């Protein structure tokens, strides 16, 4: 096993979107989320997330296989469903990453 971790560039995100969506579904299916995800929804969510200015997607690889990931994006780039409750709790939207 050869593990590596690196930031994906936008082209790589698009090329690996199906792999990333499968990973999100597998992780969120487990406790405590118990979320039964949909590949189409997850692919769209990730594509939108990654397209936000200054978004970052870091992936962990075992060889060529993606085995983990972390995402971050400016809070201001998120939709109202995320943005509004976080802002209501006092977070400074322009300076917060989500």
Which sheet architecture does the biggest sheet show?
Answer: 3 strands, antiparallel
What share of residues are in beta strands?
15-25%
**Main β-sheet, spatial strand arrangement:** 1-2-3
Q: How many β strands by DSSP?
A: 3
Question: Based on the structure given, which CATH architecture is correct?
Answer: 3-Layer(aba) Sandwich
Overall pLDDT, averaged?
Answer: 91
- Given the C-alpha coordinates, what overall shape results? globular
What is CATH's topology name? Aminopeptidase
CATH top level assignment: Alpha Beta
Using only C-alpha atoms, the radius of gyration works out to 14 Å
Uncertain residue segments: none
Number of domains: 1
How far apart the termini lie comes to 31 Å
Question: Which secondary-structure class do the elements indicate?
Answer: alpha+beta
Helix content: 40-55%
Order of helices and strands: EHHHEEH
Number of helices: 4
Task: Provide the CATH superfamily.
Answer: Gcn5-related N-acetyltransferase (GNAT)
């Amino acid at each position: 096993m050869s593990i590596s971790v690196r930031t994906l560039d936008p082209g790589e995100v698009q090329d690996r979107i199906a792999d990333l969506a499968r990973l999100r579904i597998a992780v969120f299916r487990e406790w405590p989320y118990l979320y039964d995800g949909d590949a189409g929804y997850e692919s769209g969510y990730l594509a939108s997330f990654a397209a936000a200015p200054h978004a970052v997607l870091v992936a962990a690889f075992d060889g060529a296989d993606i085995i983990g990931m972390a995402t971050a994006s400016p809070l201001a780039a998120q939709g109202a469903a995320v943005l509004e409750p976080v802002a209501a709790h006092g977070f400074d939207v322009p300076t917060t990453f989500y």
